[in-house]
Write a structure and sequence with these properties.
about 210 residues, eight-stranded mixed beta sheet, 3 helices, 24 strands
């Protein structure tokens, strides 16, 4: 049985906690979040600040960074200096994942998501509930595909992209790094990096400043 340490204890984390709890191969060891000032145990699970990770991490443990915001998730992963093998890839049993798809470390595939043939999902991504990633997509690290998004064939993204709920990307389009696609949008053109695009079809409404 694999001991799992979850970083983050918000709404996104609660979904991941339920997936972990429902898998007999996993045992929840700790939930770490900086909203906790000190460590305590509840139902056999350690709750503590993220700084407790070295105290609870042991050989064979796996870590999931269960934080929905892409920038925050990337910042925390970079601060931990863990090896890829130390991260758990979480796939809900109701998700459909092609045997030819490739899923990166620390990525979470939520209920009823579909990952089709030859798709490649990077590390620490979120493929949220009922999202569809069609054949030959290439999704870079720290991307978040919100519920009911549809990425049709041969879509590519840069790092840190956020696609809003129920957005659709037509075949062959590229979403540049750290771009944001508004909920319900339809993307029919390439989207430049650091851009926010909304509408049907999308139009760019602002440039995103990175801190």
């Amino acid at each position: 049985m694999t001991a799992v340490i979850i970083l983050g204890d918000g709404g996104h984390s609660r979904v991941i906690q339920e997936i972990i709890a429902g898998n007999a191969a996993y045992q929840m060891k700790a939930i770490l979040d900086d909203k906790y000032n000190a460590g305590f145990q509840q139902k056999g699970i350690i709750h503590a600040p993220i700084a407790f990770l070295p105290k609870v991490f042991s050989k064979g443990s796996k870590v999931v960074v269960a934080i929905g915001d892409n920038r925050t998730r990337k910042r925390i992963v970079q601060s931990l200096h863990l090896l890829p093998k130390h991260y758990l890839t979480v796939i809900h049993p109701s998700a459909i994942v092609s045997t030819s798809a490739r899923i990166g470390c620390g990525t979470v595939i939520m209920p009823s998501a579909v990952i089709n043939a030859n798709a490649e999902i990077g590390a620490h991504c979120i493929v949220n509930t009922s999202a569809i990633v069609e054949h030959d997509n290439e999704i870079d690290d720290f991307t978040h595909l919100s519920p009911n998004t549809t990425l049709t064939g041969n879509v590519t993204t840069g790092v840190g992209v956020h696609v809003g709920a129920a957005a659709t990307i037509i075949p062959g389009k590229h979403l540049g790094s750290w771009s944001v696609i508004g909920a319900g949008s339809t993307v029919i053109e390439h989207i430049p990096a650091y851009s926010k695009a909304v509408g049907n079809p999308t139009r760019i409404i602002e440039q995103i400043l990175m801190n």
